[in-house]
User: Which sequence fits this backbone?
């Protein structure tokens, strides 16, 4: 039996992954790290309320076998490059370092299609740098998931997603699988399925592969 550590449980993928983890018999305990208290209640769930600036103060509560990182923001939400980098680089990397020291064997990261540390696009560059930084921390298994445009039940509607749904419904057959919009639940299900694998090493899963996981 295992313990799962989840960061980003209030987000689109993280919220759906939390539900899956709580209903998975392989995990007897689920530790969810969030900035605000979760509204979910479950006998297996332990909610650690903190942010990246005080995460180290909760180090003794971060003992887990598998770490799932679904943290992420947008430049529109973050407003500054510094704030964006804090959420998408500093927090995931710090979580990786602290949990690895506590004995975590596996880290699963939601990154993004096009992640590349050498990219001229700031968003993709930070995602690539995060992927690389965590790769050097030394997990037995490290899975990087790079979904394309995410669609799903967000609390705040996004005009871009509505337009994407319309576009893919009409022209989807012309678009390579790798670039098609992907349901957030597929990504959550992929994370859970990959965590069950016994492979050792670092693995990158592009969006086309993630489309194969059913809803």
Assistant:
């Amino acid at each position: 039996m295992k313990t799962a550590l989840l960061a980003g449980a209030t987000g689109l993928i993280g919220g759906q992954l939390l539900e899956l983890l709580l209903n998975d018999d392989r995990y007897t305990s689920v530790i969810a790290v969030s900035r605000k208290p979760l509204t979910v209640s479950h006998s297996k769930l332990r909610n650690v309320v903190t942010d990246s600036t005080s995460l180290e103060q909760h180090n003794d509560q971060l003992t887990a076998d598998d770490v799932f990182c679904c943290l992420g923001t947008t430049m529109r939400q973050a407003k500054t490059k510094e704030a964006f980098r804090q959420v998408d680089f500093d927090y995931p990397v710090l979580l990786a370092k602290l949990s690895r020291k506590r004995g975590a064997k596996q880290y699963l990261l939601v990154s993004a299609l096009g992640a590349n540390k050498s990219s001229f696009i700031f968003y993709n560059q930070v995602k690539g740098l995060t992927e690389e930084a965590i790769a050097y921390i030394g997990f037995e298994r490290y899975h990087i998931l790079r979904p394309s445009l995410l669609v799903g039940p967000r609390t705040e509607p996004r005009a871009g997603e509505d337009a994407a749904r319309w576009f893919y419904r009409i022209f989807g057959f012309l678009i390579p699988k790798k670039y098609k919009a992907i349901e957030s639940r597929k990504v959550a299900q992929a994370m859970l399925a990959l965590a069950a694998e016994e492979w050792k090493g670092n693995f990158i899963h592009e969006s086309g592969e993630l489309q194969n996981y059913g809803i």
